[in-house]
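User: We ran a pulldown and think these components assemble together. Before we commit to crystallization trials, I'd like a predicted model of the whole complex to look at. Sequences follow.
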Amino acid sequence: MNALLKVEGLRKAYPGVVANDDVSFQVGRGEVHALLGENGAGKSTLVKMVYGLVRPDAGQMTLGGEAYAPGNPNEARQSGIAMVFQHFSLFEALSVAENVALGMENPPPMRALAARISEVSQAYGLPLDPARRVGDLSAGERQRVEIIRCLLQDPKLLIMDEPTSVLTPQEVSVLFETLRKLKAEGTSILYISHKLEEIRALCDGATILRLGKVVASCDPREKSARDLAEMMVGTELATPAPRDHELGDVALALDAVTVASGAAFGASLRDVSLEVRRGEVLGIGGVAGNGQDELLAVMSGEVTLAADRVHLHGKPIGTVGPNARRALGVLAAPEERLGHAAAPDMSLVENAALSAWVRMGMVRRGFINWGKARKYAEHVIAEFDVRTPGAGSAARSLSGGNLQKFVIGREILQKPDVLVVNQPTWGVDASAAASIRQALLDLAADGAAVVVISQDLDELMEISTRFAALNEGRLSEPRAAAGLTIDEIGLMLGGAEVAHA
Amino acid sequence: MREALIRLEKRPTPSKLWSWATPLVAVVATMIAGGLLFGALGTDPIVAIRTIFYDPLFGEFAFYYRGQLLVKAGPLILIAIGLSLGFRAGIWNIGAEGQYIMGAICGAAVGLAFYPLEIRWLIFPLVVISGALGGFLWAMIPGILRTRFNTNEILVSLLLVYVAEQILAWMALGPLRNPDGNGFPGSRNLAQYSSTSNQELIVGWGLHWGVVAALIAVIFAYVVLSRHILGLNIRLAGEAPRAARFAGVNPERLVLLCLGISGALAGLAGMFEVTGPSGQIGIDFNVGYGFTAIIVAFLGRLHPIGVMLAGLLMALTYIGGEAAQASLGLPAAAIQAFQGMLLFFLLAFDVLTNFRIRFGGRATA
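Assistant: Here's a predicted model for the assembly, 866 residues in total across the polymer chains.
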């Protein structure tokens, strides 16, 4: 095979962890190559080394047959490698063209650049107006800005880190068209994703990493998603199975909740009403930034309202704060793991106390019983298979998926009456995601009311009893999840059914 | 291809070793750089360092200086403990100097109102409470302005120092002026009025009630930070404000609480000073403890035990500096530069707590 990028024996160790060990693979010209692996398998470190953000401790790379050792991303770009990150680096107050210009060494005059952006965006089927302000764009459109920024460099290799995690199904198909066009022109693509079906649909080759080492390489088109997942995990995979049970009374209810957004470009909630029953999983879909954070905050008590806007078992609790709600049985796990659900520099013991002290009796007369907190942290670590050297580790030393397991486990093991989670499996590998979903289903089966806010539609379809979509702060009428087609869901997400009778 | 010779890599977990070693390394670096500075000023560096750090404790006049050590360290520690609680929570009270002055004025005014009554069991506690209250109320101004109008507490608390200094001058010249003072500015001497006098508890040690209060504050802060839910909330608010909200912390209440505690402790320090070592309200009553305490708080890693040690060290540079001025003729500014260097080196070496240094980088070539 005529390889464009060849990686041989790369190794990178951080204090206490070997992120990559003897990693070798190659990407052919015009190949879409997938990097697969669980969280903490070393995918991010690997692409960061290819992109010059991290320097390997050992090993070589060649690009187009020549030795390649980028000292920084600038050198990587000059060699023809571009990268679209999972988290965008855009200025919301600036226009599309201004944002693109900021990433260039010698930007052309603004008018010429705008023309060039329109040209490229049309050529690749990525409609985008260069004059629009980024703050007004959807996540999908923002991603287009990042992609076009890369395409203007005319890259030989495009690296994409979890590109579909923020997109609606319709936007995903637009993106895939673009990527296929690039591939046809001979551009190679290194594609990182957790969504195995997408990889099967898009990629020609795949390298699978486990614990920093390459464990397999294959043609994903010839394997089933289940095969891929099992190669990643190294064991067989359990599919979450809903248990048959009756639905109970209404546990938590929101009544015509309207919240103005605090953030300049954040969404607000408009006239949102919902009910969730004991034993039910209410799935709320929608692209991030449409009011998800606010919806969670209204239910967790981080945002308080007039008393009768929120009812728990028929009692008004709108004015009640987070800890008093916890005492009443309402728990929540926010989306942002580091900085919201957990404090990055604090240990897991301290982070266990953070949201569990009220219910788990860790505090007496204001004094914390750290022994109890440590026991509880260790309990969560054991029950949810959190991989960490110990409960004393700082939250930020955990990989994203492991921290997510800890955060979700911390709430579930408190046996809540109502649990609200936002993006429960975001960035979590297949096997861990399956076990988190199973835990949520078990919780509902035991009589809790569960609200799952997520962008992952497959996940919502798998576990929801009823499904509703959140779009620009408005919540659609919930419908029974069984029997919804992907087109109907797409329409709900697009807001077409918002104006219900 | 350019290669950086030294690179910084973020550590996955902050280094426990370095978080304790940096203050020591900073002290050593300050001694070296300070020695060079003194050398450039024409003084033998070894002699200068010895005069500052060794002689006050073990030299010929140590009997005098040792007592001074606690007298200086007391207010520094008392103020810095309060500041460190706020700094941990990301609440920046820069105006402890003003709260110190207001505590002294309130304490002195209440004490002098009873002059010449001799009821120490009643008056002295009243003076203590008034001192704390004066500092507390002065700190509430930036607190309420921040929670109500979202003003910046750094600016407001700092600017209120200058207001407090004007009030001090007015008090010394006007309402609190000693009626028997032949028209000289300054109040009656509170240290010589038996109902308010804050005398040494053990002669020659410099151990007055303010030092006792500082020790209690250290223990109190240690227990709160390590064992109490309030301490967890304070640290959460500083490290991850959103997580603090998630944990049920009311940010506005925390702002008022932290400013209130640090204001009250600074007020206490001022009150113990005016009734003891200083003795009277005068125009030049404040000598900058409130500002130096900021250095003490950071030098002590915002940790109560660290703050105590840093307070003692900083007190040593004060009295050692005085000794060096007297015996070696070093200018006062050189001593201040020396103290500034300490903070500078501390912040510089602090990088090592969260990052590790990697040399070279040709590993891949």
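Chain A touches chain B through 48 residues (CB under 8 Å). That may be worth checking against your pulldown data before setting up trials.

User: Thanks, that helps.
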